[in-house]
């Protein structure tokens, strides 16, 4: 029988995330993460090997969480509804995972991951956005019958740029999203999708 995990990985990642979003990149040291999580420094090093690896894992966890419903939404049988649902999934993600959403809105990958770990983790980071890229390309073809640069730009405006822009200032300012934001975003996304290409 395997031994129970004494210090769950998510406990350490959650502590690092809160240090980052509350106090900035310099606040997330191994010592500070240990103090905030209640996990011994040695256990953190044993689990991750380095601070860079821990932060990379934290970033990837947030990205995977944000991508899950976004990519799934694009499987809707109607292309317009797939695009609208994908755009709205970004607002829903902000409600379901507010700290992860705030992390992604507040920091660029390069700010957090200064030194990309080598090996499997580097490969995983390099491939991180491929599922979204493939899903957007497929959706563009469904919407417009082609995946020209203009068609791809229109799709990205509808499903990513509008919802990201609509939520970012609230997330960065640590403010609650307005109750009508989801409705207003849907109106804007449908207007973009229904305008001539």
UniProtKB/TrEMBL annotation:
UniProt keyword annotation of 4Fe-4S present: no
Keywords on record: DNA-binding
Alphabetical list of Pfam families matching this protein: TetR_N
InterPro entries (UniProt xref): Homeodomain-like_sf (IPR009057), HTH-type_TetR-like_transc_reg (IPR050109), HTH_TetR (IPR001647)
HTH tetR-type domain location: 6-66
UniProt superkingdom: Bacteria
Gene3D superfamilies noted in UniProt: Tetracycline Repressor, domain 2
Portion annotated as DNA-binding: 29-48
Keyword DNA-binding attributed: yes
PANTHER family: HTH-TYPE TRANSCRIPTIONAL REGULATOR RUTR, TRANSCRIPTIONAL REGULATORY PROTEIN
Protein name, entry field: TetR/AcrR family transcriptional regulator
């Amino acid at each position: 029988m395997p031994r129970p995990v004494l210090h769950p990985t998510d406990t350490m990642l959650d502590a690092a995330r809160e240090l980052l979003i509350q106090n900035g990149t310099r606040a997330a040291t191994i010592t500070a993460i240990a103090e905030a999580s209640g996990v011994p420094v040695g256990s953190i090093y044993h689990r991750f090997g380095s601070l860079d690896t821990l932060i990379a894992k934290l970033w990837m966890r947030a990205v995977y969480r944000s991508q899950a419903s976004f990519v799934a939404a694009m499987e809707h049988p109607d292309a317009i509804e797939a695009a609208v649902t994908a755009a709205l999934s970004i607002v829903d993600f902000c409600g379901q995972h507010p700290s992860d959403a705030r992390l992604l809105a507040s920091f660029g990958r390069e700010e957090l991951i200064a030194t990309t770990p080598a090996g499997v983790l580097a490969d995983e980071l390099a491939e991180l956005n491929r599922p979204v890229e493939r899903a957007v390309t497929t959706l563009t073809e469904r919407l417009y019958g082609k995946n020209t640069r203009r068609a791809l730009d229109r799709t990205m405006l509808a499903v990513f740029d509008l919802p990201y822009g609509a939520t970012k200032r609230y997330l960065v300012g640590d403010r609650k999203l307005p109750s009508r934001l989801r409705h207003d975003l849907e109106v804007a996304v449908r207007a973009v999708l229904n305008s001539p290409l």
